[in-house]
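Why CTP synthase? Reviewers of the renewal asked for a concrete example.
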Amino acid sequence: VLGYADANSREMDEKTPHHVIDIMEEQKSITNMGGTMRLGAYECVLQKGSKAYEAYGTEHIQERHRHRYEFNNSFKEAYEAAGM
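Here is what the prediction returned.
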């Protein structure tokens, strides 16, 4: 979407300069991982006119999660400018 050939998840590549998917802030200090990840449905509000809104056809969606990683919001403005 942004044209970064080296974009990746920090989970897959710790050294990527563009970690578009990163560990959740509240997970960074946790060393005992048992039972600490995000589980279940997560409500998202999609911006009208975005590619995600176009794909889902609605403003409010729920996605199921079972992980400690999420979208890195430091890329939010660039993604929005690209229509996401």
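The two ends are 8 Å apart (CA to CA). This is the kind of structural detail the renewal will allow us to pursue systematically.
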